[in-house]
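In this supplementary section we document a worked example of the pipeline. Step one takes a protein sequence of length 82 as its only input; no multiple sequence alignment statistics are reported here. Step two produces a three-dimensional model, which step three serialises into structure tokens for compact storage. The input and output of this example are shown verbatim.
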Amino acid sequence: MADKIAKLLAKLPPQDLKLLLPVIRQLTETQDLKGLGVKSLKNSGGLLRVRVGNYRIIFTNKNGQILILALGRRNEKTYRGL
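The serialised model returned by step three reads:
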């Protein structure tokens, strides 16, 4: 899963990457969710999301460990298949 996220990040324009990287670092390194506007996804079994502009970072927080599951622009397919 980490390889998939890394590939997505490599394809992003620099200005979008500049917005997303600090949030991803805060999630994965410090695991501090304060100030990020984290919301729980309905009927998802514990999945959470963070909104960063037009992008959504979908992740799970199990036993204090954050695992990013998906990253992408918000559209009609963003939450399908989760």
